[in-house]
Amino acid sequence: MRQLTTEDLKALEVDLKNYFPQSLQVYGCIVQLNRNGQRADPVSVLADQWPEFRVLLIKLEFREKGDLFKDMTVFSKNDVYLRDLLAHSDVIDWKMFICLAAELHHEKMLEFVAINRGVPMKKEAVCYMLVLRDPSKLSHVDSSLLKLSSLNDQPVAWILNYASSALGMLYTLPEHRGKGFAKALVAVMSKTLHSQGYPVYCFIEEENHLSYSLFTSLGFTEEPDYRAAWFVFNDL
Questions:
Q1: Which residues contact 132 (CB under 8 A, 6 or more apart)?
Q2: What are the pLDDT tens digits along the chain (236 aa)?
Q3: What is the three-class DSSP state of 175?
Q4: Which ranges constitute the DSSP H helices of 43-175?
Q5: For strand 121-131 and strand 157-161, is the pairing parallel, antiparallel, or unpaired?
Q6: Most buried among 48, 133, 138, 167, using CB within 10 Å?
Q7: 157-161: strand order across its sheet
Q8: 143-182 burial: b if 16+ Cβ within 10 Å, else e
Q9: Radius of gyration of the chain (CA)
Q10: pTM of the entire structure?
């Protein structure tokens, strides 16, 4: 596979918009790289061919033991292209623990690859993708009493932004729930991300009805034909 350059990534950001929602997770990763560069964990963006790519794989470099828990993210225009790549190339080290973020419909194909590679596989999570298309239509949230700060302080509620640009890890301490902090954080973060050119979206696990209701009440909408999944190989 070819490792894409800085200039390639700029072109890729534009091209990936043609394949939403399937490409949104990879798109979010590319936006992060184009805005911030390699400020945190070193990342490789690999394409099976360029510029007419068929498969994209985003790999974080593994430098120490804790890095085993870093996800790989894949987007493929076709199930067959991805199957052939995983079955016949060494782009992935199948002896390692692997957590692969991919579209749910790849599940049967990934099972086939795992069997042929002789590695165990399990489906770790399945999530809805919720997208905020127009932050100006966010349901009104009174954030006047909210003091925003970094996690270096002692927060009572927080939200994070993943490497894929997705919102996540929303949490309020039990004794501070029911005060509207979660909604205020989502609203403020959504407006900030949108103003900086990031996609505004999140993944909600299928059984997490509370978070689903919260995000949809703010104006996020589900992508009905898309499910994100995380597949684990060589479970620890």
A1: 138, 190, 194, 200, 201, 218, 219, 220, 221
A2: 999 999 999 999 999 999 999 999 999 999 999 998 765 568 899 999 999 999 999 998 765 555 555 689 999 998 999 999 999 999 999 998 999 999 999 999 999 999 999 999 999 999 999 999 888 878 777 666 677 777 777 889 999 999 999 999 999 999 999 988 999 999 999 999 999 999 999 999 999 999 999 999 999 999 999 999 999 999 87
A3: helix
A4: 79-88, 107-117
A5: unpaired
A6: 167
A7: 2-3, 43-47, 55-60, 72-76, 98-103, 221-233, 121-131, 201-205, 167-172, 157-161
A8: beebeeeeeeeebebbbebbbbbbbeebbbeeeeeeebbb
A9: 19
A10: 0.91
Q: Quick one: tokens of 75? A: 């987007």
Q: One-letter amino acid identity for 27?
A: Y
> What is the token pair recorded at 229?
């999944």
Structure tokens at 220: 């996020």
Write out the two tokens for 55.
């498969």
Q: Any idea which residue has 């990342």 for tokens?
A: 43
